[in-house]
Write the structure tokens for this entry.
Amino acid sequence: MIARACAHENEVAEVLRRGQWPSACAPELRAHVNTCRLCGDFVLVAESFQRARAEAASAAPVVSPGALWWRAQLRRRNAAVERIGKPILGAQIFALATNLVLVVVFLAYQARHGVGWLTWLEQLPESYKLHLDQLGQQLGQSAHLNPGWSLAVLIPSTATLALLGGVVAYLASEKQ
Amino acid sequence: MKEPLPMHRESVLPKVLAGDAPRVEDPPMDSDAFAGFYERSARPLWAYLARVSGDPTLADDLMQESFVRFLCASRPEEGEVAGRRYLFSIATNLLRDYWRRRRQVSIEELPDELMASNPSSLSEGLIGPALARMKPRERQLLWLAHAEGYTHREIAEITGLASASIRLLLFRARRKIASLLREQSSTPRRQP
């Protein structure tokens, strides 16, 4: 299809845009539109769309601009926080991964060469060995604890729990 | 749409350490200026979205999203006319995304209410049935040209089409809808 344009199309468009159609425009132009199919189409379509626009605009439900403004502000802030949080999250993941690797390497080394660092506990005098059953008795607890559980187990376990608890608390506070 | 510039760690960390972050960039206009712009632009934008999509509820959602994205975009101050053109281009992209998503959903997955005809006040009048028989792209072009009065170059900017093709596409669409409008006006309306 060839898009043929009428020489009067711009003139007709200008008259329509100014709201001069049909009463305030030149009679020659009106006569031309009545005979020219292209300009006739143009006027018919433009008038229909202008009417439809006025009709639809009057039916438009308009929400408060303030609500949209704050929604946009919130979104901008969240986007900024997310952009800043990305490198920090990356650093946290890297630190966690490094620590895990170190722990695994350490444990593997200890498994291969024996837990030599625990031998100092064996050298402690018998009187200084703190058994859990004695501790239970001191605290007046009725529960019976295995007397074999010594300080050698208690100290590393407590230290590990404290470390993990600290990491979890830190990560949780970072998320909030 | 223009994406905001990415923040680099080198530029962000000093601000974080100084307790200066996160800092949100200033929006393109203040709240009072936005209220005025909204008053003048919301109704025409809603009319465009409602008529082109044929769904007033969707038009509500897309209009709000368009304004929010408009405010979130970091772009130089260009005045109200350019701002409105930019707003229409956001709305046009949102409409295109919506249609693209709907095409990806199989017809079995669509809820029944979407498949039923949506009788609304907007489908009344002469142009409603004629517009319903046009393609979405044709509806967009016709609306932007004849309801909003945008030039071919501006329509190209809004729709992302080549400026040279707008003329031909608009010519075809105008011819098609004019014949539909003439056909409708010559056919007597059925009484309910």
